[in-house]
Write a structure and sequence with these properties.
Blueprint: H1 11-22, H2 26-37, H3 42-48, H4 50-53, H5 58-87, H6 93-101, H7 105-112, H8 122-128, H9 132-140, H10 148-152, H11 165-181, H12 184-197, E1 199-204, E2 220-224, H13 230-241, E3 245-250, H14 253-264, H15 273-320, E4 330-334, E5 341-346, E6 352-358, H16 367-381, E7 385-389, H17 394-411, E8 419-423, H18 428-432, H19 435-440, H20 446-459, H21 461-465, H22 484-502, E9 504-505, H23 511-514, H24 521-535, H25 552-558, E10 562-563, H26 581-591, H27 595-598, H28 602-606, H29 620-631, E11 661-669, E12 673-677, E13 684-687, E14 708-717, E15 722-726
Parallel strand pairs: 4-7, 7-8, 9-10, 13-15
Antiparallel strand pairs: 1-2, 1-3, 4-5, 5-6, 11-12, 11-14, 12-13, 14-15
Helix pairs in contact: 1-2, 1-5, 2-5, 8-11, 9-11, 11-15, 12-15, 13-15, 14-15, 15-22
């Protein structure tokens, strides 16, 4: 056709498809797409462009953003395929129409398959030997009207590696098999059969039983394709990646061949019918079945990845939005045996004050010295909170601190002793050795940085955890086995959502936290901190425009999520966007009050009718948001801080007994249950069937990471270090 440029992205077609898939109106999708294409962030659109999208929330906007990305990706792939086929001179109007209207990427690849550059195959070599015309004759399956030998004789050429009739037939049948295997209808039918009636199987590889002990349940496992849950498929694929299992798809081969033979070798009167029947079997076993297996497993893997990423994302959100203990002087303790426990004290703003090393555990068991050191630090810095990392030696350290605090409480009746909390230290060591930690604490040892991080995690989990790669936080399900690009995108988006839902104090936040504010990013975050360090705290939001390279677009996206305390504009410490300050001025005028009097005054805010302040710039949904914010400015969506009380005397797996009722913290939620930290260095599992008395469809419906729960110990397997728990039998 000679065409070299193709454009396959149709905005209106994409809008219609996305609206149908997302279950929202086309005009909402169209506006959301326009806002996204213009560079607006999800948090900004969800919060400050509600009129434009008719109130779409962040969840719906994510669905639209993902679908839009897939539509662009599919369009780009179509354009590449069309160019490739066109360059071969094989693009027909009908084929172009099929490709341009295709909405399924698997079908699209099947359409492209006959034209795709291939490695050398049996069919390729047969074509090189001049056997394509014979293959075409076999494919037609029309009566020959002459002897077989007459048909085959022209193709026999020993110099061309076709010494006899059998070699000619075999080569031609290899071409036929390949062409049959590329037929889009046949591939589609087989794919549908695999999806509906196929079974996923896994088998242990010969000689790998010992190495594969942890995959024992998958040594000879079979499960219907349409019912296999994501976590089991990912477990099988993990075993396969480790070289221990073979994972594949089983079909009823006899049934498939009974259906395929009359479909492909359709003329029973054809002189080469028997050869074609044998070719159907070869085509099925050698080409179609492996291709179907690969495509089906890929589809299952993609679906499992999406589910696993969603589990990880939800767990991460719950962890990031864990209740903060608040701006109290906090002592962080990173436990250890031989090298001792590193102790760091930070003030209410998180500023590092002092560090020490104590040795209350084996081998030194210096209880006296460790007690004196902690008492001194608590007294001099007025420590209110003690955060103990939950890693090696944590329970021994926890028991020591617990006794010390009890003694302190008995001896000193002037006030409450510090509150002690066990804190997850997942990823703390990675942060301690990071370039960021080195910039924040260049003169401190890695272990001291770890203790500081543990203290910060208690004060404000969100502000500290954003410094760590989310994959290192330990709340995922097979996070290293899923699509890493999609995982990174999902996690980054979730971190941004959490940070913006809470809001960020621009004069206190680290560059790591600021980087996740809508419209900011790492480079601008560094510039904001540098500007703050050299020129002092920001007095108002407008001063952000003085930061180099922070333009009007970035300001528009970020301003509503940044807080300035004690500035001259009270609204700067609220979620009211600067573009709407004029609305608040109208409200203040109507009340005969000042902005300071209105902000935080629910009684005054209740006197106002949102409808009275709707104008061409500010719709009803936005005005209602403004009134809610004025009533409770800067409200934190995180719940109230609560401490889990681990049982005394239960420090190790061997201390657990069946029937014990214990308190713990949900550390991870998966599709098959929830893991609980009981303080014994090994999380226990509440299977989905033991989460509640009523039927539970998904564990995340009833528990979240960070929840404090009471559980009953059902079984303890010391050898395999497994703990079975129940929440419904408590």
């Amino acid at each position: 056709m000679g065409n070299s440029t193709f454009s396959c992205f149709d905005l209106e077609e994409a809008v219609r498809a996305i609206a149908t898939a997302a279950g929202v109106a086309e005009h909402q999708v169209r506006t959301a797409v326009e806002l996204l294409e213009a560079g607006n962030t999800l948090p900004f659109i969800a919060r400050y462009r509600k009129e434009a999208t008719s109130g779409l929330d962040e969840t719906a906007l994510r669905i639209i953003e993902d679908a839009l990305a897939k539509a662009h990706e599919l369009a780009r792939r179509k354009e590449t395929i069309l160019r490739t086929i066109d360059q071969q001179g094989l693009l027909t109007p009908d084929l172009q129409r099929q490709i341009e209207t295709c909405q399924d990427k698997r079908v699209l690849e099947d359409l492209y398959l006959p034209f795709k550059p291939k490695r050398r195959t049996r069919a390729t070599m047969a074509r090189e030997r001049g056997l394509q015309p014979l293959a075409d004759l076999l494919l037609q399956q029309r009566p020959l009207g002459r002897p077989r030998s007459d048909v085959l004789r022209p193709f026999i050429n020993p110099e061309n590696d076709v010494p006899d009739e059998q070699a000619a037939i075999q080569g031609a049948c290899d071409i036929v098999a390949e062409q049959w295997s590329e037929d889009i209808g046949t591939r589609g039918w087989l794919s549908q059969q695999a999806s509906e009636f196929g079974r996923v199987y896994s088998k242990v590889k010969r000689g790998k039983k010992e190495d594969a002990a942890k995959f024992e349940m998958y040594f000879d496992h079979h499960e219907p394709v349409k019912r296999i849950p994501s976590h089991r498929l990912l477990a099988m694929k993990r075993g396969e990646a480790d070289g221990l299992l073979r994972v594949g798809i089983e079909l009823d081969d006899d049934y498939m061949l009974r259906k395929l033979k009359p479909r492909l070798a359709s003329n029973r009167q054809f002189e080469f019918h028997q050869e074609l029947l044998a070719t159907v079997e070869d085509c099925y076993q050698r080409l179609l079945l492996p291709a179907t297996e690969s495509a089906t497993l890929q589809h299952l893997k993609e679906r499992a990845d999406e589910e696993a990423i969603q589990v990880f994302v939800q767990n991460l959100r719950n962890l990031l939005l864990s209740p903060p203990a608040g701006p109290e002087v906090t002592m962080g303790i990173d436990p250890g045996f031989r090298t001792g426990c590193k102790v760091a004290v930070v003030d209410g703003t998180g500023k590092f004050l002092e560090s020490r090393t104590i040795f209350p555990t084996a081998p030194r068991n210096d209880i006296t010295g460790a007690t004196a050191t902690l008492r001194d630090l608590i007294a001099r810095h007025n420590v209110q909170l003690i955060a103990i990392g939950n890693g090696t030696a944590s329970r021994e350290t926890d028991a020591f601190v617990n006794k010390m605090l009890k003694d302190l409480s008995r001896e000193d009746d002037r006030g409450r002793p510090p509150t002690k909390v066990m804190v997850s230290e997942s990823g703390a060591s990675i942060y301690s050795a990071s370039e960021l930690a080195a910039r924040e604490y260049p003169d401190l040892d890695l272990t001291v940085r770890g203790a500081i991080s543990i203290a910060h995690r208690l004060q404000d989990p969100l502000a500290e955890l954003v410094k760590i790669d989310p994959k290192s936080i330990g709340v995922g399900q097979y996070q290293h086995d899923v699509n890493q690009t999609l995982l990174r995108r999902g996690l980054d988006r979730e971190v941004q959502s959490c940070v913006n839902s809470v809001g960020v104090d621009v004069n206190m936040a680290s560059s790591s936290l600021l980087a996740h504010v809508a419209g900011i990013g790492p480079k601008l975050a560094d510039r904001i901190v540098e500007h703050r360090d050299t020129r002092g705290p920001f007095d108002c939001r407008k001063q952000l425009l003085d930061v180099p390279k922070l333009g009007n677009k970035a300001f528009e996206q970020a301003a509503g999520f940044l807080r300035i305390r004690d500035g001259h504009q009270p609204l700067d410490n609220s979620a009211v966007h600067p573009e709407s300050y004029h609305v608040v001025e109208k409200m203040v005028t109507k009340l005969g009050a000042t902005t300071s009097q209105l902000v935080g005054n629910a009684v005054l805010a209740a006197k106002l009718d949102a409808q009275d302040f709707v104008d061409e710039h500010c719709g009803l949904l936005t005005v209602e948001d403004i009134l809610a914010e004025l009533a409770k400015p800067g409200r934190d969506p995180r719940s109230e801080f609560k401490v889990a009380r681990f049982a005394e005397g239960v420090n190790d797996l061997k201390d657990l007994k069946n029937g014990m009722i214990l308190e713990g913290v949900i550390s991870n939620v998966t599709k098959f249950g929830a893991f609980v930290d009981l303080g014994v260095h090994q999380d226990g599992l509440i299977h989905i069937s033991e989460l509640a008395n009523e039927y539970v469809q998904a564990p995340s419906d009833v528990v979240s990471v960070g929840d404090v729960v009471r559980v009953k110990v059902l079984d303890v397997d010391l050898q395999r270090r497994r703990i079975a728990l129940s929440r419904k039998q408590v």
